[in-house]
Each structure stands twice: as C-alpha cells, then as structure tokens.
Amino acid sequence: MEQDEPANGSSENNHLAAAHQAPASSSERDVPTFLNSVDEGKSGFRCGYVAILGQPNVGKSTLLNALLHFKLSIVSPKPQTTRKRILGILNRPASQMIFFDTPGILEAHYRLQQALVRAAFQAMREADVQMMMIEPSATPAPADLAILNRLADTGKPIVVVINKIDTVAKDHLLPVIEAFRNKQNVNEIVPISALHQDGVEALAEVLEKYLPAQEPFYDTELITNHPERFLAAEIVREKIFLRYGEEIPYSASVQIEEFVERPGHKDYIRAIIFVERESQKGILIGKGGQALKQVGKLAREELEQLIGRAVYLELFVAVKERWRERESELRSLGYL
Questions:
Q1: Topology at the third CATH level for domain 227-332
Q2: Residue spans per domain, the chain
Q3: Beta carbons of 162 and 168 less than 8 angstroms apart
Q4: Of 101, 189, 207, 280, which has fewest CB within 10 angstroms of its CB?
C-alpha cells in the first residue's frame, strides 16, 4: 500500500447528501400488488420510520439500496452481513421515509448474535411501519411466523414484502400471497425483486400512505445520518465478507482509528481489523500481505467513489480474543 505520511487536517463528521443519489431506474416493470384500503388521513406531508425486518439473506440491504437508488448498506451472499442498524432516508415529494436496515433475525448462539437480534427488535419497537421481508415459499417458515407474531404485538401497520420474485413463476406467487393474506394485522402484501428493482416504486407508494402526517425529521438533502467514518468501516468489512470464506468474515470487526480530511491531499483513513485468533490474522493478511492489500485496494476505490475525494487507506490487523463473546469488547466495538 502507499506509504505517504498523515498530514494535518480536520477530522470528518460529514453525512451523505441526496446529491450522491443516482436517478431512478427505468427498468421498473409492472408488478402486481395486493393492497388494502387505508384511511388517508389529513392531507399534507408524511414522515416516519420504517423497519426492514426478516430472516438473514432475504434481501433487506439490497432493498434499502434499491429504494434509495444508492448503495448505502453493504451486501454479500453470506448471512448476517448487516451487523448494525443502518439508517437510510428516502425523500419524496410528499414524504420522508426513514428506513432501518436491520440484522437478520435468527436463533442466537453467541453474544454478538444476541446483540444483533436485539438491534432488530429495537428497530421494530421504534418504527411507525413494519416491513417484513420473506422469500417466495408457498409454506411460511416457522421463523417467519414467529417474526410476524412479534410484529403483530406492536400494533403497527405491517407490510409483507415477498422478495426474489424473479426466481419463481408468477403463478407460484399466489400460494405465497394466500398464506399471508389473512394473517393477523397484515395490511399489505407486495411482491418485488429488489435485485432488479421490480415493484420497488410500488412498494414505496404503499409505505408512504401508512406514515404519520408530519413534517420531515431530517434535512431533505440527506440520505443517511451516518458519518463517513462509519460507512468507511462498513465498506472495509464488506470487502472482507466478499474476499474470504468460512470463519474469517464472522470473526472480523473493523474500527476506524483515524479519519482526517486533508485539503489539497488525500484524506487519511486508518482502520484496524480485529480478529479472534492469530491464525485468522495470518489468513487475513495473506502471503506477503497480498490478501490484505487487495481488500484495501477495493475498499479505497469504493470509498473514493462514495465521498468524492482521494483517499489514503491504511489497514492493520490485531487480535481481540473471543471478542464476539465478551460484553466489554462488544461495547468497545459499538455493538452494545
């Protein structure tokens, strides 16, 4: 990696603005929705929080990115890539939707997973609208029904989103729809393909009408309230998830130690990747440091595209033994 030295600069706390958003996709196809009537309430602007909930790997982060027309949440084929609640803001002419992208809900086997599931349930409690994502299986999974029961207990509107409709024939969707149509407190059922942005605009219109009538909470130029250093850590972690197999991604956590803006120079970012064992450290670094250099290269390129500035990224690897099981370590890494 590059060896230029950090120069004096200012610590950043910038948030991403809507200027970074790409225009809406023109590939939106006419996808049927199964909607119920709703009291539109008084006319005027609507604003509220929407929790995106479901089992791991149902496409929650992909959907948030599709709704925003911007890659905010990191994505990988591995379950529970999302570890922290991601807040994304969709600004529309008549509404501001504030989405919580949450970790996948599963049976927790260690303290980190327990913290992730708690984060999802916390988002559930705080949201004005519950959006539950499922895959197109004719028989509802017991885990999905358990989540649905928790949602019903909140008394909030529930929108069931059937994702990945591009993987099944349309006539196979009807049994899925029927399986959820009469479930307790399900207000709407919307089939989509988040990956191909089919039905995503229709989903946004459905969600909008369930938001409370009130003024926007955030500046309408923002698409997230997360600072750039948070997004930098997420991007590095995504590259680890994509680059390594087996235990490495799940044993790794990324902490940004320094993020300094340097006008006239490259921004300086110093990140530490924590793993649980020395053997994992060796695998992460790779022979001659080549594996870690590749992670750094890919992360730097995406960071530069994200913030619109040149970046010098330094990555270090350190061992925190059994950090996923230790409350003090989970707290220091921001999971509690």
A1: GMP Synthetase; Chain A, domain 3 (3.30.300)
A2: 18-208, 227-332
A3: no
A4: 280
Q: How far apart are CA 73 and CA 63, in angstroms?
A: 9
Other CB atoms within a 10 A radius of the CB of residue 109 amount to 9
DSSP secondary structure, 64-82, as one string: HHHHHTS--S---SSTT--
Q: What is the pLDDT of residues 275-287, one digit of tens each?
A: 999 999 999 999 9
Residue 10, burial from CB neighbour count under 10 angstroms (0-12, 13-18, 19+): exposed
* Residue appearing with tokens 């440091």: 289
Q: How far apart are the first and last CA of the chain?
A: 33
Burial tier of 189 (Cβ tally within 10 Å: 0-12, 13-18, 19+): buried
Question: Collapsing DSSP states into helix, strand and coil, what is residue 179?
Answer: helix
262-320 pLDDT, tens digit each: 999 999 999 999 999 999 999 999 999 999 999 999 999 999 999 999 999 999 999 99
Please state whether the predicted TM-score (pTM) of the whole model is above 0.70. Answer: yes
Q: Rounded CA gap, 202 and 157, in Å?
A: 17
Class of domain 18-208: alpha beta
Find out whether 136 and 171 touch, Cβ atoms under 8 Å: no
